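Action item from last meeting closed. Structure (190 res):
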């Protein structure tokens, strides 16, 4: 029950947070910093921090940040300073689906005017770069993480192009089998 009350206080204070420490006059703002502990018990605490650029409200459990909301509308879970609209330090689980919207997709691979790179060039490129095209190299991923939409799109484009390569190779196999059958027929007739 106490956690629910604390969370309710936290959410109400978060909505009010956009007005804390804000100078709405058009005069030049002075730099300032303010930190206030709003609530504290042995397990939970709520604190408010503000400077001339931003303000934030943070819910702590055992001095570890659980939830942070800043005046720019960014939320973070498990960390103090959100850098994105939703910033999570830990695992995210969804019981249904995570939907990421995008404005373009790679079905253009199947358009008739799509220029498929010759397979030998593709293989040389992969050997040279040591990773698949349209995907970030290991160093970039370990340093910066991955962007889900960009990564899925890159994987899908590679898969779609593989189907085109399979189609080309299948045609070549069929042609070779037909030629082989013709040669067998000629050999048997002689």
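Sequence:
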């Amino acid at each position: 029950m106490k956690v629910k009350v604390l969370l309710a206080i936290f959410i109400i204070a978060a909505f009010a947070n956009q007005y804390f420490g804000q100078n709405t006059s058009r005069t030049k703002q002075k730099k300032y910093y303010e930190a206030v502990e709003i609530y504290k018990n042995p397990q939970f605490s709520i604190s408010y921090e503000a400077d001339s650029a931003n303000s934030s409200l943070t819910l702590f459990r055992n001095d570890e940040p659980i939830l942070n909301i800043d005046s720019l509308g960014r939320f973070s879970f498990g960390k103090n300073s959100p850098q994105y609209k939703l910033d999570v330090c830990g695992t995210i689980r969804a019981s249904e689906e995570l939907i990421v919207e995008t404005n373009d997709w790679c079905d253009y691979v199947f358009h008739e005017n799509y220029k498929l790179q010759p397979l030998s060039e593709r293989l040389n490129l992969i050997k040279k770069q040591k990773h698949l095209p349209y995907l970030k190299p290991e160093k970039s991923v370990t340093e910066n993480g991955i962007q889900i939409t960009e990564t899925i799109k890159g994987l899908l484009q590679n898969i779609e192009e593989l189907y085109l390569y399979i189609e080309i190779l299948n045609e070549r196999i069929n042609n070779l089998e037909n030629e082989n059958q013709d040669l067998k027929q000629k050999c048997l007739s002689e």
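Note appended to the action item: The chain has a mean pLDDT of 84.
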